[in-house]
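In response to the reviewer comment on reproducibility (Comment 2.3), we provide here a single inverse folding case reported in full, input and output, so that an independent group could reproduce the run without further information from us. The C-alpha cells appear first.
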C-alpha cells in the first residue's frame, strides 16, 4: 500500500464536493493537482498548496489516482475519455474513482473503457454534502475489485469516514446512490411542503422546526434544509438542478424497468417547477420558495 507522500492524486471537478475532497487530501500530505472550468476554484486550490492543470489530461498527467467529481455521466465521459481526458494521461495502472451520480449502465461502460486504457476503476459515488466533504467525512458507496480498494485505501480513508465495498462489479455503487437520491429528493420536497404548510396555518415555523426535529416526522433532510428556509439563505449548498437531474435518472430507469416511481416522480415535478421559476442554481430548499410563491406566503427574508 502506498503512503500519501508517494501517491499523486488528481481531482477533476472542484465544486463544493470536489474542492472539499482536494482540501482533505492536501491536509493529509498528498500531492494534489486539480482541474475545473471555474478558474477561481483552481486558484483556491493553488492557494491551499495544490497545483492546477489547464485541462483534465494536464491535471492528471502521471497521477496515480484520479477522482472524477463532476455532475453527471456526460461530464464524466468527457473528463475521462474526451480529447483532453484524464484516463490516457494518468500513470498506467492507476485508479479512477468515479464519483458522479449516474445510471448503472454508464458506470459499467466507463469501467470497461478504463480497463482498455490500462486503468482500474472504482464506481464510487459519494454522499454527505459540502461540509462533510471539507471535513473528510463523506460516505462512499463503491464497487470494484477488492485489490483496487486496498491500493487506494489511504485516499479513501482521507476523504470518507464510511466506505461501503458493495461488490466487484461496476454499476452496483451507482445503483446504491440512485436509491439514496430517490429518498433524498423525496425528503427535501416533503420537508419544503411541510414547512410551508405550517406557515400557511400561521404557525411559528422556527418552533415547528424545533418540535419536528424531536419527533417521529423528522428526517435528515428536514433537519438539514429547513434552517436554510428559516434563515432565508438560498445560496447553493446543493442546487435544485442536481435533483432535476438525479430524479430524472430515476424516472428514466423506472420507465425502462417498468417499475412505478410515483412519489419520486411527483418530487421531480416539484424540482422542475422550482427550476422553471428561475431557481435551478439556487439551494434545493428553494422548493419551499416555489410553494410559498404559489400559495402567496411570506417566508423569512422573502417578505413582500
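Designed residues, in position order:
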Amino acid at each position: 500500500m502506498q503512503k500519501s507522500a508517494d501517491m499523486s492524486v488528481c481531482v477533476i471537478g472542484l465544486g463544493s464536493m470536489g474542492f472539499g475532497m482536494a482540501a482533505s487530501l492536501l491536509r493529509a500530505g498528498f500531492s494534489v493537482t486539480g482541474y475545473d472550468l471555474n478558474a477561481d476554484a483552481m486558484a483556491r486550490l493553488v492557494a491551499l498548496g495544490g497545483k492546477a492543470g489547464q485541462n483534465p489530461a494536464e491535471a492528471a498527467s502521471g497521477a496515480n489516482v484520479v477522482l472524477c467529481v463532476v455532475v453527471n455521466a456526460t461530464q464524466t465521459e468527457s473528463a475521462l475519455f474526451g480529447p483532453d481526458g484524464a484516463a490516457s494521461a494518468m500513470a498506467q495502472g492507476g485508479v479512477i474513482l468515479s464519483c458522479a451520480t449516474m445510471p448503472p449502465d454508464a458506470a459499467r461502460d466507463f469501467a470497461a473503457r478504463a480497463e482498455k486504457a490500462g486503468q482500474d476503476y472504482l464506481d464510487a459515488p459519494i454522499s454527505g454534502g459540502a461540509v462533510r466533504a471539507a471535513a473528510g467525512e463523506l460516505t462512499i458507496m463503491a464497487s470494484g475489485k477488492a485489490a483496487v480498494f486496498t491500493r487506494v485505501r489511504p485516499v479513501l480513508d482521507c476523504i470518507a469516514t464510511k466506505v461501503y465495498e458493495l461488490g466487484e462489479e461496476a454499476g452496483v455503487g451507482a445503483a446504491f446512490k440512485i436509491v439514496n437520491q430517490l429518498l433524498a429528493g423525496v425528503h427535501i420536497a416533503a420537508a419544503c411542503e411541510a414547512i410551508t404548510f405550517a406557515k400557511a396555518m400561521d404557525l411559528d415555523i422556527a418552533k415547528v422546526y424545533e418540535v419536528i426535529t424531536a419527533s417521529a416526522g423528522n428526517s435528515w433532510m428536514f433537519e438539514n434544509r429547513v434552517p436554510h428556509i428559516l434563515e432565508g439563505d438560498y445560496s447553493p449548498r446543493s442546487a435544485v438542478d442536481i435533483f432535476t437531474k438525479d430524479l430524472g435518472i430515476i424516472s428514466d430507469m423506472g420507465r425502462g424497468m417498468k417499475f412505478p416511481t410515483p412519489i419520486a416522480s411527483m418530487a421531480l415535478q416539484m424540482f422542475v417547477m422550482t427550476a422553471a421559476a428561475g431557481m435551478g442554481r439556487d439551494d434545493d430548499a428553494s422548493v419551499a420558495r416555489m410553494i410559498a410563491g404559489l400559495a402567496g406566503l411570506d417566508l423569512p427574508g422573502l417578505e413582500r
